[in-house]
Design a protein that fits this description.
- The chain has about 270 residues and is an alpha/beta fold.
- It folds into two domains: about 1-135, STAS domain (Transcription Regulator spoIIAA); about 140-265, Heat Shock Protein 90 (2-Layer Sandwich), CATH 3.30.565.
- It has seven helices and twelve strands.
- The longest helix has 19 residues, at about 175-190.
């Protein structure tokens, strides 16, 4: 399954001994949220926090790994059904699947509640991930590996142009090029490593990612100069341009460095 390569991971531990681990691939195609330990109120809150963060990044699919969750009373069942409904209501929808043994108390209760119609369940994460990823066309993603070179931002912009023109997303073309230029330029200037850039279709918008080999997270610096008169005068202002031109943006650590992402939708 693709989500087990070039991963980013975020942990949400709590004092009760349980934890929530979010794992995503560099193109944000499939995100896995693993909930481990005994189901408590604290673990429930941590799960919601982690899942909300994962959905904010709008992956194509979300897999909830419940194989290590201890919930003999199946008290968490309504939580997972809610997550599935939230994902289905997003635009475009986020496909949600669960990995848990169907013969356990939680799996049995979800079956009784009709989760099979809204929350597909699988024996393991691999099967759930393959099924979730299969719901979206592979042609909705373009990716390039690029060197640390001054020409790299231009090549990254060209990838955005190719993607938007292929998908007919002309309303976001110029903003997406602007955002990708800043993300790639920041990576080349500060990380100084090879980078991977990706453009993923998200309905009428695009999700952009730039992955580099530097673990330092990007910082939005205080603005010390007068803001530009328009967004198009903001080129070269780094993350402030990204913030102004995108619907949402953020960063996640990876095993080799970090991935910085941004979602661009029509104004």
């Amino acid at each position: 399954m693709g989500v087990r390569h070039s991963l980013s991971r975020t942990r949400f531990p709590h004092d009760g001994g349980g934890s929530v681990v979010v794992t995503a691939d560099v193109t944000a195609a499939v995100t896995v949220v693993a909930v481990r330990g005994t189901w408590t109120r604290a673990l429930r809150m941590n799960s919601f926090t982690a899942i909300k963060k994962a959905l904010t990044e709008h992956p194509a699919a979300l897999v909830i790994d419940l194989s290590a969750l201890v919930d003999p009373q199946a008290a968490s069942s309504s939580t997972w059904l809610t997550v599935s409904r939230v994902g289905a209501a997003m635009e475009p929808p986020v496909r949600v699947a669960a990995a848990l043994p169907p013969h356990g108390s939680l799996g049995a209760r979800l079956v009784r509640l009709g989760a099979a119609y809204s929350l597909p369940m699988f024996e393991n994460v691999a099967e759930a991930g393959v099924s979730a990823a299969a719901g979206g066309p592979t042609g909705d993603r373009m990716r390039l590996d690029l060197p640390a070179h001054p020409d790299t931002p231009a090549l990254a912009r060209n990838l955005v142009t190719d993607a938007c023109c292929a998908w007919g997303l002309h309303d976001v073309l110029h903003l997406a090029r602007l955002v990708m230029s800043e993300l790639a330029g920041n990576a080349i200037e500060h990380a100084r490593t090879r980078i991977s850039v990706a453009v993923v279709r998200r309905g009428d918008g695009v999700h952009l990612t730039v992955t580099d080999g530097d673990p330092r997270m990007p910082q939005l610096l205080e603005q010390t100069e007068k803001p530009p008169g328009s967004l198009w005068e903001a080129r070269g202002m780094g993350l402030r341009t990204v913030q102004a031109a995108s619907t949402a943006w953020g960063a996640l650590p990876t095993q080799e460095g970090k991935v910085v992402w941004a979602t661009v939708r029509p104004a």
